[in-house]
Design goal:
The chain has 344 residues and is α/β, with parallel strands linked by helices. The protein is built from 13 helices and eleven strands. The chain folds into two domains: 188 residues, Rossmann fold (3-Layer(aba) Sandwich), CATH 3.40.50; 119 residues, Rossmann fold. The strands form two sheets. Strands 3-2-1-4-5-10-11 form a seven-stranded mixed sheet, sandwiched between helices. Strand 4, helix 5 and strand 5 form a beta-alpha-beta unit.
């Protein structure tokens, strides 16, 4: 299929919602209309695609949605879509609407579904990275990550106030069970004393003894005060609640847990997410017009890129090693200054 034959595209949002998905949807619809292409939206992600829950969507429907979180065309998780017959049903539904190409806004699970669908459908498929986890290879930032970090930072700032007032340890649990980007970003932005991230746990799992030793050493150096820890979900048995109970019961540390949960997905998208979503939504449509297929519209080193869909989940998007170094060593009060008198 050449780009000249693309007259109608489909669009859906899939998986966990991310702030900025509406901005990405808006950009796809406006760009398509700019290039003379009709757009059909499928509600509730792949589930809606299987149920043929489709509706035409035009510029007038999306003009003023970029400031809203969530997704106006809804999202869902659909386990059945992994099956071959489900992809075949989806292909038949797309063909029934004479759709030439499909834009999928979501994360790695959504992209796996997109790649699976490509094996059973002749149209072109482009992914747009919408996930707060920032864990997709090939793009420096994913839509929703900046807002999630802002929300976590705001909560950590407020928790610091009450932790300081009572000289308490607080454990704040954030999203990111498989990737520590939110944990690292929010911990650094809010000045947390400790991070427990999936990447660090794989390298050297933290023990309660080591954690208690660090807390006590920080208190010795700084005096009485607060100690705030950021814990990525699923990185401790029982999560923040169990760890807090263990620290208080076994080591007599006044400790309180706080689970941020799904509030990290809500709220008005940050400017960075609105801008990124707008750029990548347009980029997705222009990739289709350029004949691209089975790729993600991304942005790397300030350049727009097209990343093969399998690369987005098969290759690793690493944490910034310099940020880890700064947070672990430079900002860690327990680490000694290794500079000598001869250093400049």
């Amino acid at each position: 299929m050449s780009s000249q034959t693309i007259k109608r595209i489909g669009v859906l949002t899939s998986g966990g919602d991310a702030p900025g998905m509406n901005a990405a949807l808006r950009a796809v619809v406006l760009a398509a209309e700019h290039y003379g292409i009709e757009t059909i939206a499928f509600r509730h992600g792949y589930q809606g695609l299987l149920e043929n829950d489709a509706m035409p969507i035009k510029a007038k429907d999306v003009l003023h949605i970029l400031q809203y979180s969530g997704t106006i065309i809804k999202s869902a998780r659909c386990q059945r879509f992994k099956e071959a017959d489900a992809a075949q049903e989806a292909a038949a539904n797309l063909d029934s609407h004479n759709i030439d190409a499909l834009v999928i806004i979501g994360g790695d699970g959504s992209f796996r579904g997109a790649d699976h669908l490509a094996n059973h459908w002749q149209g072109k498929i482009i992914g747009v990275p919408g996930t707060i986890d920032n864990d997709l290879y090939g793009t420096d930032m994913t839509i929703g990550y900046a807002t999630a970090v802002n929300i976590a930072m705001d909560a950590l700032d407020k928790i610091r106030d009450t932790a300081d007032a009572m000289d308490r340890v607080f454990i704040v649990e954030v999203m990111g069970r498989d990737a520590g980007f939110i944990g690292l970003g929010s911990a650094m932005a809010a000045g947390a004393e400790r991070m427990i991230l999936p990447e660090l746990q794989k390298e050297k799992p933290l023990t309660v003894a080591a954690l208690v030793k660090h807390i006590q050493r920080v208190q010795e150096i700084r005096g009485e005060g607060s100690y705030v820890m950021v814990l990525s979900e699923h990185q401790w048995p029982g999560g923040a609640v169990a760890l807090a109970e263990q620290l208080e019961a076994e080591h007599h540390l006044p400790c309180r847990p706080c689970l941020l949960g799904h509030i990290q997905r809500g709220g008005a998208p940050a400017p960075a997410d609105r801008i990124l979503a707008s750029e990548l939504g347009v980029h997705a449509v222009e990739l289709l017009l350029a004949g691209e297929h089975r790729v993600m519209a991304g942005k790397r080193a300030n350049e727009r890129v097209a990343v093969p869909l399998p690369d987005t989940w098969q290759k690793k998007n690493p944490l910034d090693q310099n940020l880890l170094r700064i947070q672990h060593e430079i900002f860690n009060p327990v680490k000694k200054n290794r500079r000598t008198k001869t250093d400049n």
